[in-house]
UniProtKB/TrEMBL annotation, chain A:
The lineage of its organism: Bacteria, Pseudomonadati, Bacteroidota, Flavobacteriia, Flavobacteriales. It comes from the Bacteria. The keyword Membrane applies. Keywords: Membrane, Transmembrane, Transmembrane helix. The chain crosses the membrane at residues 6-25. This is DUF1574 domain-containing protein.
UniProtKB/TrEMBL annotation, chain B:
It is a multi-pass membrane protein. GO terms for molecular function: acyltransferase activity. Belongs to the membrane-bound acyltransferase family. The chain crosses the membrane at residues 6-22, 34-58, 78-97, 118-140, 330-350, 371-388, 416-436, 457-480. Keywords: Acyltransferase, Cell membrane, Membrane, Transferase, Transmembrane, Transmembrane helix. InterPro entries: Ac/AlaTfrase_AlgI/DltB, AlgI, MB_O-acyltransferase, MBOAT_fam. It comes from Flavobacterium psychrotolerans. GO terms for cellular component: plasma membrane. One of its GO terms (biological process) is alginic acid biosynthetic process. This is Membrane-bound O-acyltransferase family protein. It is found in: Cell membrane.
Length: 299, 482
């Protein structure tokens, strides 16, 4: 029995040591502080999901970096933002996309379904704290373990490749230009078939609150922003709930609603996302809003 | 509590430590611990069905004693049928009531009568088919005077409820397991190491092979009308790998876990996809169920005595019953019927016992003839599994019709083809190891024994790495539904 137990412990020990070494290496090498440093002139960060990732071309927005990442729930944005802000004390303003689909219960999938976990844990797994790990494990234990194990292997390669300027290389989100143009919507295809919102993703909203509070504690100017959407995108399914959440949970946060920013059809790739042309026009406007006349931002 | 869950990874070592360090060499304590942990294991699914399990155990325990004490055959027969009818009654209510109710409604609707059948809104108690069959075999064996009734309730309950076999088998016999329960277990290093190896291999089969294949089998079967014949055939092959990896993986974990506690359970799989004919396939697939039906149905019906007609009739009966055992759906009945058809030539021409040994024993490669036979048997199995996997018989026929069309010659196309190719490569590597280890109880039982221990450990670590890295989306064990 003694021999058996010793061998079993030794075998499990090899696995545990390998995992611990891997995690420590990732934590210290993959997210090295110097790799997260932004140029000194950068003072504006933009966070969110695919809407901002497609909408903000920072070639036209002074002092800004777009860290929007498609399919990203706020829990991951929160830990990512913390890490970036910690390493860049020059950041003064943070813009966070807040739009209708981000309150939807379906966002829970973005938080912890198998597919999203695999992407996010690989990218930001080692940034998560105990609270986040417990939450994700509780909601999808198998998916979390699978994603975590996969990330251990997948990130080994990244440890030895040049990851300097992780942010500027798009390792934590980026502007994603596309030239696709929205097909002309037929009158009967206008997206009015969405069901009225019956439940919300409490965790997504909770982590947005945490992110806002973190920025406020750091004395930064925080602003929630809704990027332009095509007229065919009908928000009525959730607008009243959305506004209620906005007024109740974020009443002391600046709110910039650019949903109805006038853009022609050729500025959209689909009803929710801008294309390169739309992003250029909108980013120029946004630059004026945030850099030239910050009074445009309404309380 | 699934075998491939973190809960089981905690449960198993805790029970193991208590078993060998707290109850060591004390039969009564060993059995009480086995029973308590087995009930805990079962209650993790749904504690309410614990009462059903305990009632079923008490029923067979009590009727067993009553049969043993019976002075006359009338009384013995009474207790026998009492137990059989209640056991089958429970199975019928929980598993088949809704099927019969809806089938009846469908049947009379053909005569223009419309009824809304009353159906039960209850879930199927997990493992009911398995522990009911444990109990039935025990009662039948007592009735036939093959064994004596067990007087010790804890020992009998351990036989019925031993956690590794409780929810999906193997279907044990009192003649095989009860003597082990009644003897104090002493730790055996080789057996325990063998058990761990078998658990590791079972996890690989389930997590790497079955769960990954399931992703594509589900994708293709769930939307079958949009795929070509070649894609549908590939989907059926994925399901063929899935069900083997899933169920034999489960059985390996069950047998391996039992070995850690000093028990040897009945072997359930013996490389069925290397069979040269369907008769051999059925000697190698879900062995504990096949032999159960052979001993408690086929032989009592007359077996192979009484000429070809009797053999044909009895074969059809056991395959249909076996199909129906799997689930209350016509698809399972057709699956059973199809297998009976497959096996018929060997029954009629008396060639069903031609291939008793494992193929190419002692050789690296099979002969061309054996290879051809294996391939043909495999393809027959693939077509039968289409019925098993489909939601309805018409869906199965539709899939087969599309497979047998000219679109079979098209290049398969579906979402995630790169991952599917990886899965096929993993499956190929898996079947290669199975082939190399086919003369052992499980493929890696003696795999790498000629290597130095460092390399062997490396092999086990690679298997662990594969389990973590290639883990597919978690799927419920298929046989939990039965």
């Amino acid at each position: 029995m003694k021999k058996f137990l010793l061998r079993v412990f030794f075998f499990i020990g090899i696995i545990i040591v390998t995992v611990v070494v891997d995690v420590v290496l990732q934590k210290n090498l993959l997210f090295k502080d110097e790799d997260l440093k932004l140029p000194k002139e950068i003072s504006i960060l933009i966070f969110g999901h695919s809407h901002p990732a497609n909408a903000y071309n920072t070639e036209y927005i002074q002092h800004a970096v777009n860290l929007g990442e498609p399919g990203e729930a706020y829990i991951y944005t929160y830990y990512k933002a913390k890490k970036v802000i910690e390493n860049n004390p020059q950041i003064k303003k943070v813009f966070i996309e807040f739009t209708n689909n981000q309150i939807d219960k379906g966002m829970d999938d973005w938080l912890w379904d198998d597919v999203h976990l695999q992407y996010r844990i690989k990218s930001y797994g080692v940034l998560l704290d105990k609270e986040a790990i417990q939450l994700l494990y509780k909601k999808n234990s198998t998916g979390f373990i699978n994603a975590f194990s996969k990330s251990l292997f997948d990130n080994i390669g990244s440890l030895f490749t040049n990851k300097k300027n992780l942010i500027l290389k798009g390792g934590m989100g980026k502007f994603m230009p596309t030239d696709k143009i929205i097909e002309k919507p037929k009158s009967d295809s206008i997206d009015k078939k969405r069901k009225l919102l019956d439940s919300i993703s409490a965790y997504n909203i909770l982590y947005l609150q945490k992110l806002v509070k973190y920025c406020q504690d750091k004395k930064m100017e925080v602003c929630l922003v809704r990027s332009p959407m095509h007229k065919s995108y009908d928000v009525s399914y959730s607008e009243s709930v959305f506004k209620t959440i906005l007024h109740q949970n974020f009443k002391d946060v600046k709110w910039l609603d650019n949903k109805n920013f006038p853009l022609p059809d050729k500025g959209f790739q689909d009803s929710e996302h801008l294309n390169s042309f739309g992003a250029k026009v909108y980013s120029q406007y946004f630059n004026e809003q945030v850099n030239e006349n910050s009074n445009n931002i309404r309380q | 509590m699934f075998f491939n869950s973190l809960n089981y990874a905690l449960f198993l070592p805790i029970v193991f430590m208590l078993y060998w360090f707290v109850t060591n060499k004390n039969l009564k304590s060993q059995n009480i611990l086995i029973l308590v942990s087995s009930y805990f294991f079962y209650a993790c699914w749904d504690w309410r069905f614990m009462f059903l399990l305990i009632f079923s155990t008490l029923l067979d325990y009590y009727t067993g004693i009553k049969m043993s004490e019976s002075k006359d055959s009338y009384s013995k027969k009474f207790w026998f049928w009492f137990s059989i009818s209640i056991n089958l009654g429970f199975l019928g209510v929980f598993k088949y009531f809704n099927f019969f109710a809806t089938s009846f409604a469908d049947a009379i609707s053909h005569f223009g009568l419309q009824v809304n059948p009353w159906t039960l809104k209850v879930i199927l108690p997990v493992g009911i088919s398995f522990y009911t069959f444990h109990g039935l075999s025990y009662v039948i064996d007592i009735y036939k005077d093959r064994i004596k009734a067990e007087k010790n309730f804890v020992e009998y309950a351990c036989f019925v409820s031993f956690f590794p076999l409780l929810v999906a088998g193997p279907i044990e016999r009192a003649t095989h397991l009860l003597p082990q329960v009644k003897k104090v277990r002493v730790f055996n290093y080789s057996r325990a190491v063998d058990g761990l190896r078998q658990i590791l291999w079972g996890l690989f089969k389930k997590i790497v092979i079955a769960d990954n294949c399931a992703e594509f089998a589900n994708l293709i079967f769930d939307d079958h009308t949009n795929y070509s014949g070649s894609t549908l055939f590939l989907g059926a092959v994925f399901f063929t790998f899935q069900i083997y990896g899933d169920f034999s993986g489960y059985s390996d974990i069950a047998l391996g876990s039992a070995r850690l506690f000093g028990f040897e359970l009945l072997k359930n799989f013996s490389y069925p996809y290397f069979s040269r004919d369907i008769a051999e396939f059925w000697r190698r697939w879900h062995i504990s169920l096949s032999t159960w039906f052979r001993d408690y149905l086929y032989i009592p019906l007359g077996g192979s005595i009484g000429g070809t007609w009797m053999k044909v009739r009895n074969t059809f009966i056991i395959f249909l019953v076996s199909g129906f055992w799997h689930g209350a759906n016509w698809t399972f009945l057709v699956w059973g019927f199809l297998n009976a058809l497959y096996i018929m030539p060997s029954i009629i021409f008396n060639t069903n016992r031609n291939n008793l040994d494992i193929v190419a024993k002692g050789k690296l490669l099979p002969s061309l003839k054996d290879f051809g036979s294996i391939l043909l048997t495999f393809i027959l199995a693939v077509f039968a599994w289409i019925f098993f996997r489909s939601d309805s018989v018409s869906q199965a026929f539709d899939i087969i019709g599309r497979i047998l069309s000219s679109s079979l010659l098209k290049v398969p196309q579906f979402r995630g083809i790169t991952k599917a190719l990886t899965t096929l490569l993993l499956s190929a590597a898996f079947f290669l190891i199975e082939w190399l280890g086919r003369e052992n109880d499980f493929a890696i039982q003696k795999f790498g024994f000629s290597w130095s221990s460092k390399f062997r450990w490396m092999f086990y670590l690679i298997l662990v790495a594969f389990i973590f890295y290639f883990a597919g989306k978690e799927q419920v064990f298929i046989y939990f539904n039965f």
